[in-house]
Design the sequence.
């Protein structure tokens, strides 16, 4: 029993330890480079300067981080729902897939940075352009991952569903969708790491609220430490969202890792 009790903390330490060590080493190299090469804080502030700048305006930075989080989560949620519905439609009809997929590829190939100013013109000032761009930037990976998963259902499972007289909806809900979930979660993890990028790009072009606005305005006023404080908060937000999706995957699909192994 004691061996089992000690193995669990060691296992958790083996998973958590390397990322923490990597982050500490990266911060140490950054800090040491600033000190050794005497880099001016105007160009690259040291980690203590960034921490100090954060604690000078914590409420402002956290409030703007909350707005970026809201925009990111809203855009991501819209993209997930629409991408899954479209993927089911495309997987069900090869004709619709052949007619629609080239349009999706063309849409995805357009640089999202070029669309950001137009979204402000079309949707006005406020959160709408940021939510839309966050949804747009993660939409295509979700569609591709969901279609790949739905198309990977083994033929024998489909034949089994037909032999049991399962309807189209029952086949999708009980056979194809569960089998596709591991691949869908690959797309979900890729998309959640891209969604904040869309929100921040729109915030930079429309700097009224959000961490992107903080970065744009502080850079314009030569407050580099504040810009880096916002960037660090954005990185923490993105990593946190990614591991939330990873946690949901492990909670819903504990069997997926065993099958892939």
Sequence:
């Amino acid at each position: 029993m004691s061996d089992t009790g000690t193995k669990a903390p060691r296992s958790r330490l083996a998973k958590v330890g390397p990322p923490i060590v990597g982050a500490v080493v990266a911060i140490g190299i950054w800090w040491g480079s600033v000190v050794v090469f005497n880099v001016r804080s105007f160009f690259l502030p040291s980690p203590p300067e960034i921490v100090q700048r954060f604690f000078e305006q914590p409420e402002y930075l956290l409030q703007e981080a909350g707005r970026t989080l809201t925009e990111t989560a809203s855009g991501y949620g819209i993209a997930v729902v629409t991408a899954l519905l479209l993927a089911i439609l495309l997987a069900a009809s090869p004709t619709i897939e052949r007619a629609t997929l080239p349009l999706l590829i063309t849409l995805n190939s357009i640089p999202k940075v070029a669309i950001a100013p137009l979204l402000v013109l079309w949707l006005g000032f406020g959160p709408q352009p940021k939510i839309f761009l966050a949804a747009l930037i993660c939409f295509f990976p979700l569609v591709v991952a969901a279609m790949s998963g739905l198309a990977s259902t083994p033929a024998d499972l489909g034949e089994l569903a037909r032999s049991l007289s399962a309807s189209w909806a029952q086949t999708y809900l009980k056979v194809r969708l569960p089998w596709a979930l591991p691949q869908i979660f690959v797309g979900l993890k890729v998309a959640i790491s891209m969604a904040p990028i869309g929100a921040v790009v729109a915030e930079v072009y429309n700097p009224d609220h959000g961490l992107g606005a903080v970065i744009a305005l502080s850079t314009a006023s030569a407050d580099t430490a504040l810009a880096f404080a916002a960037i660090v908060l954005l990185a923490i937000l993105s990593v946190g969202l990614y591991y939330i999706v990873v946690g949901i995957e492990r909670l819903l699909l504990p069997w997926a890792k065993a099958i892939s192994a």
